[in-house]
């Protein structure tokens, strides 16, 4: 019955991880997966998360394993919404904006992207979705599964090793049509580590408004990119406040910024163009209808941790401190790799290693060079040349730089 099933190549990062695990070389280095590692190359539960986990354990709440509601934990959802849309003042303008936003809890960022794609494919019925080239591979899978035509817009200018703003704008201007969905990375673009400037974001917002495109923000790195929560959601907050008639949505993940990868904590927020509690409720009910049929409700454990932190000013400060620890370490490693390549006189320009932001660097190494890195030097990164900077440590960065130098020269 099943002998004719297609042979899918599930995201190449998983094959890379398996090869890395099987490699017995003592100096092997993993620059593949998008997970934070400390300077010893070990997983790092955030200090604030460990503290809250202990508190919750001691509380011994008998309801801690109960079901959530279908929409999820209401307090968590309000805090999550306030975080990405930058609410906090409680002004009448803010309250009005909140009336436009329907939120549901999801199985992390992937689940939020999926619920968004599912909801929009059913109710917006876009002719196509525009995805950056390159992007997080799962964007393609998620939209392919909804049967929506996928088109790509240029994002990376290989020669300049820069964001291809002109290419993106020209393509969308000429080819995108009303009601098309446009997927945008809110910050720390995966895999390139290149984001639009504020002026470019404004132009993108104007283009979406003028052409009637539906912006779909994917926010997986808020606070993780620059260490600053407001700065990392500038794009989202600009669209919300400056394009009052534009409808849009946002998939939010707490995997990276809380280090809660396996807990699957996320939210999907749909912004309508009417500040109406009735419309908001109707959107929410429709999202709940889809959720009920898919996974009934999201898990409780991780969202309780996030909620506990965001509810408490002191814990929130401690969280910000943890975010700074992570984002600073990444910046230090970027610089260390850059300095070592300079010292070695490695051919080519390497400034992009320090100017790109977030977890990833698009190194510019070719697929052949990445193969050689693996085969000769036991340094594992994707063939696209994407390196997860968090795999670098004070101990291995010189080794990695020498390996880069070797594959570039030979
Ligand atoms: N979106 C982007 C751009 C990502 O890079 C990731 C994770 O790598 C996600 C969404 C979702 O991750 P998760 O489902 O673990 O929250």
Structure in words:
It is a single chain. This protein folds into 2 domains: 118 residues, Aspartate Aminotransferase, domain 1 (Alpha-Beta Complex), CATH 3.90.1150.10; 238 residues, Aspartate Aminotransferase, domain 2, CATH 3.40.640.10. The longest helix has 32 residues. The strands form 4 sheets. Strands 2-10-9-8-7-3-4 form a 7-stranded mixed β-sheet, with helices on both faces. The protein is 47% helix and 14% strand. The model has no long low-confidence stretch (mean pLDDT 95). The protein has 410 residues and is an alpha/beta fold. It is built from 15 helices and 13 strands. It is globular, with a radius of gyration of 22 Å. Bound molecules: pyridoxal-5'-phosphate.
């Amino acid at each position: 019955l099943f002998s004719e099933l297609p042979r899918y190549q599930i995201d190449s990062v998983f094959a890379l991880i398996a090869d890395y695990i099987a490699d017995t070389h003592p100096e092997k280095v993993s620059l593949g997966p998008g997970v934070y590692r400390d300077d010893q190359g070990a997983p790092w539960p955030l200090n604030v998360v460990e503290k809250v986990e202990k508190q919750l354990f001691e509380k011994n709440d008998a309801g801690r394993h109960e079901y959530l509601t279908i929409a999820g934990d209401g307090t968590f959802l309000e805090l999550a919404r306030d975080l990405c849309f930058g609410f906090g003042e409680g002004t009448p303008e803010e309250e009005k904006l909140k009336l436009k936003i329907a939120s549901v809890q999801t199985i992390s960022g992937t689940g939020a992207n999926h619920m968004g794609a599912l909801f929009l494919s059913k109710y917006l019925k876009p002719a196509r979705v525009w995805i950056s080239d390159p992007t997080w591979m799962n964007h393609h899978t998620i939209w392919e599964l909804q049967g929506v035509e996928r088109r790509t817009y240029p994002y990376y200018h290989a020669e300049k090793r820069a964001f291809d703003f002109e290419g993106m704008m020209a393509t969308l201007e000429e080819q995108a049509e009303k009601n098309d969905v446009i997927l945008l990375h809110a910050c720390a673009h995966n895999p390139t580590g290149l984001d639009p400037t504020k002026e470019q974001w404004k132009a993108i917002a104007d283009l979406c408004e003028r052409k009637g495109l539906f912006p779909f923000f994917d926010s997986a790195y808020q606070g993780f990119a620059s260490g600053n929560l407001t700065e990392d959601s500038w794009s989202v907050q600009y669209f919300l406040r400056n394009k009052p008639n534009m409808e849009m949505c946002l998939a939010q993940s707490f995997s990276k910024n809380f280090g809660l990868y396996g807990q699957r904590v996320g939210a999907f927020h749909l912004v309508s163009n009417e500040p109406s509690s009735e419309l908001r409720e109707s959107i929410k009910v429709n999202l709940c209808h889809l959720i009920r049929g898919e996974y009934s409700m999201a898990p409780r454990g991780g969202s309780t941790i996030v909620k506990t932190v965001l509810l408490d000013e002191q814990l929130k400060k401690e969280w910000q401190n943890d975010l700074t620890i992570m984002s600073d370490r990444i910046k230090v490693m970027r610089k260390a790799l850059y300095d070592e390549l300079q010292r070695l006189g490695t051919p080519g320009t390497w400034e992009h290693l320090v100017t790109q932001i977030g977890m990833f660097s698009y190194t510019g190494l070719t697929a052949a060079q990445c193969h050689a890195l693996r085969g000769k030097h036991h340094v594992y990164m994707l063939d696209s040349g994407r390196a997860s900077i968090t795999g670098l440590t004070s101990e291995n960065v010189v080794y990695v730089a020498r390996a880069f130098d070797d594959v570039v020269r030979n």
